[in-house]
Amino acid sequence: MKIDMYSHICPKKFMDAFAKRVAVWGEITRADRELLGAFSTRRGVKGVEQRSAPPPFWADQGAAQPMLWDIDIRLEIMDRFEDYVQVLIPIAPPVETFANPEDSAYLASIFNDELAELTAKYPKKFVAAVAYLPLNNIDATLKEIDRTINELGFKGIFLYSPVHRLKKTGKQGYDYDYETMKPLDSPEFMPIYESMSKHNLPIWIHPWGEGGLPVYQGEEHGKYALSHVIGWPLESAMAMSRLVCSGILAKYPNLRFIIHHCGSSIIPALAGRLEHSFGPFKGEGMKWGQDDEADPFDIKPPIDYFKMFYADTALYGDVPALMCGHAFFGPEHMLYGTDYPFDVEGGAKYIRLTTDAIHKMNISDADKEMIFEGNAKRILRLDI
């Protein structure tokens, strides 16, 4: 069995509700939407016939990726691959960016209820779901974590990094407010980690926005699409580093964070630097962690915390990079994940490339079995 641990979905009922509830969405111009992540893509999809009009959410953007919301098309593509199943992972504009706290809580519940319906209706195809959360409403977030896990049987939660607000830049223009941008180690998010430590289920992290890349004089965000191609892995690496340096993994050592694109791909490649470069700063008296808690690097070396993360295989067939991730994280911390459906074949290309790449890895059959299914069954407590 191949359990896709990073297969994205955006349910139709949620998109309809979002388009109605979030007034600002209708005000955002097409140009502005290009700044708001891959969700505004207008890429074509080979071999996929659109059978119905897209939801109003896509008003000026055609079908985008119909596999995100058209379940018949999604199942048709999945059926091309033997023993292939999915864990449903959210992908949608972050409600905390676009909606007020009350609306964001409502929209998150709509999203999660529809995922629950899908896993109940197609249990042999969608073996688990992960919760979408309203991070501008922490009380509602904590309640939704408990509801989705205890009542709906979800197997984890999904967080964007960083957490953005929106600001108006003109009569019709919008952009992220970088002055209010928050990292995932912000104090207000600590109750989320405490809750997930008690539930003992994973946290999926996904980059969003401009990826923390510099903006040079006279230029705007998004030049050459580098904020997506390079910036997103960089943002993932920064999120990992903040979680390590803030002491969150030291305080909650049973937390399991799943990081897209093989642990950003950056962290494994910088293993030597991560192992040795913190030392000189410690020698100069720098302290990591929270002010009222022990320095996490007094407990164990920085590199050991970075190896606590779980990495997916969404590198689009890059075998050497997967081998680098395998050497760093170890086979027990690698998870089959494809980034479905964001390719030009409605997800089929990335499923094919990712599967073939794992088969080509110079590792044991036992390691491959862990990557394809064993690790997912273990950390999600799946009985399939």
Which features does this protein show?
384 residues; six-stranded parallel beta sheet; single chain; alpha/beta; 20 helices; 44% helix; 11 strands; three-stranded parallel beta sheet; TIM Barrel; 12% strand
Secondary structure: number of strands: 11
Largest β sheet strand count, sense and barrel closure: 6 strands, parallel
Q: What name does the CATH topology carry?
A: TIM Barrel
Tally of discrete structural domains: 1
Report the mean per-residue pLDDT as an integer.
89
Q: Helix/strand/pairing class, anyone? A: alpha/beta
Helical fraction equals: 40-55%
Q: What is the CATH superfamily classification?
A: Metal-dependent hydrolases
Global outline: globular
> Are there runs of 5+ residues with pLDDT below 50, and where?
37-43, 59-63
The count of helical stretches stands at 20
- Arrangement of strands in the largest sheet: 4-5-8-9-10-11
Instruction: Give the CATH class.
Output: Alpha Beta
The proportion of residues in beta strands is 5-15%
**What is the end-to-end distance?**
10 Å
